[in-house]
Automatic annotation (TrEMBL):
<dbReference type="InterPro" id="IPR042099">
    <property type="entry name" value="ANL_N_sf"/>
</dbReference>
<protein>
    <submittedName>
        <fullName>Uncharacterized protein</fullName>
    </submittedName>
</protein>
Length: 449
């Protein structure tokens, strides 16, 4: 088997973090070389970057650093394309970052969610993701990417707790059932293998739409820079209040179902912020701490996404449910990565999937800090290469500052992330990448409109 096949086979292992081969570092470099040779022939932006940096071969992991895309690259389109409904132009933009031709008719498309649906109908499995700015990231996958990506996501989470590989459970999902966001798709896959048929309960059936995220982001920016009209602000605030009231009622309804099942070994899937909201709703319904079945399992993760919570919110949550720490399957990851990183209580860190190539960089994103001997602890900006993705280039630089232990012991053969913070949230401030502007200019220059 070649490197990609060997790494892909680990997805189906019950213990991918402990059963990774001893030559994992060699496989990482080999799969990076393999994918680079393939993708530079398919993705013009990647090939141009390789030519401009004189990168023809990858002798070391460090050689790939100039080829990594910033996360901002996947939202480098001019917003006017969406505002003016220029979906043919959005196709051209997406083409610059895709491995397959984006020859998709756009007649009849009226909004961004319809554009994504049209793309999926033609084999481009595009998902959106948005931050607090509201400008959506659009990431392309092939149809063949999806089964592998789904297996990687499901099995990496199940590897974090053997109880998730047991009997199906009554499941409570603190996410909407539908939506174009990548997270919704990943959650749906988990419900199909862990949730008890007919007993999966979602927070809402109202879909998460990219258009809504973009509208909220644009309004926040307009309010901040003083260009929003008073009538627009009034409408925005009214809609926000209505949305908040709907969500509070949805959380109260779901809390009632959780309350009724609290003595069963249920499974809750959530973010830390939504789980805190559930705890508050359960308290309002008279539920006391420690009333839950001891085999209750909770999978969670994600930052607070701009939500303000008490500093001790995690301690409050753990105390309220009264279950063992190991029953909380905390995770670190992102929608751009195949799989996720479950928390390991022995080493006190998030275990990286063995198929993901970790690249720890300095803050500017220019220098590789991975230890030469593959041992020890380093601190820096988290970047990675995901070889499982075929629809686009798998190399990405994130905005996360991490501490990574490359030799954690305890039978693990993968690095673990010991701590995570967003550069933008730290006292050191700005989160500027030297490569971000360069990649964005490449993309803009290739949109021939």
């Amino acid at each position: 088997m070649n490197a990609l096949q060997t790494l892909s086979a680990l997805i189906d292992s019950d213990d991918p973090h402990g059963s990774a081969p001893d030559n994992l570092a060699e496989l990482h470099l080999e799969v990076l070389r393999q994918r680079f040779a393939e993708k530079r022939q398919q993705i013009r932006v990647l090939d141009k970057r390789a030519v401009d940096t004189g990168t023809d071969t990858l002798s070391h992991l460090a050689d790939a650093i100039p080829l990594l895309f910033a996360d901002q690259t996947y939202k480098s389109y001019p917003e006017s394309f969406i505002e003016k409904g220029r979906w043919d132009h959005m196709n051209l933009w997406l083409q610059t970052l895709s491995a397959q031709p984006v020859k998709v008719p756009t007649d009849g498309v009226e909004n961004v969610d319809q554009w994504m649906l049209r793309l999926r109908e033609h084999g481009h499995m595009v998902f959106s993701s948005s931050g607090t700015s509201g400008k959506c990231t659009f990431m392309n996958h092939t149809r063949d990417d999806m089964p592998l990506s789904h297996s990687a996501g499901v099995n990496s989470i199940r590897a974090g707790n053997p109880m998730l590989r047991g009997a199906r459970r009554k499941q409570f999902v603190l996410f909407p059932r539908y939506g174009s966001h990548r997270m919704i798709d990943m959650v749906s896959m988990l419900t199909q293998v862990i949730g008890e048929p007919g007993n999966v309960h979602y927070l809402s059936d109202e879909p998460v739409l990219a258009a809504d995220s973009m509208y909220m982001g644009s309004m926040r920016r307009a309010i901040a820079d003083g260009t929003a009209k008073p009538s627009d602000i009034e409408q925005f605030q009214r809609q926000g209040l209505e949305r908040q009231q709907k969500m509070q009622q949805a959380m109260a309804d779901l809390a009632g179902k959780v309350y009724a099942a609290r003595h069963e070994p249920i499974y809750i899937q959530c973010l830390w912020s939504t789980l805190y909201g559930l705890v508050q709703a359960l308290r309002d319904q008279g539920v006391k701490p420690g009333q839950f079945h001891p085999d209750t399992l909770i999978t969670l993760g994600g930052g607070l996404k701009g939500v303000s919570l008490p500093e001790d919110h995690r301690e409050q949550i753990r105390s309220f449910f009264g279950i063992a720490d190991e029953n909380f399957v905390d995770t670190y990851g992102m929608t751009e990565m195949s799989g996720t990183c479950p928390w390991n209580y022995e080493v006190k860190g998030f275990m990286l999937p063995p198929w993901v190539v970790p690249l720890i960089l300095d803050k500017s994103g220019e220098k590789l800090l991975n230890p030469a001997d593959g041992k020890g602890v380093v601190e820096g900006r988290f970047a990675f290469f995901d070889p499982l993705i075929d629809g686009r280039w798998g190399g990405l630089i994130t905005g996360d500052k991490v501490v990574v232990d490359f030799s954690p012991g305890h039978g693990l053969k993968v690095p673990v992330v010991k701590s995570v913070a967003r550069y933008a949230d730290l006292p050191e401030g700005d989160d500027k990448l030297s490569c971000a502007g360069t990649m964005n200019s490449y993309v803009r220059g290739m949109i021939e409109v």
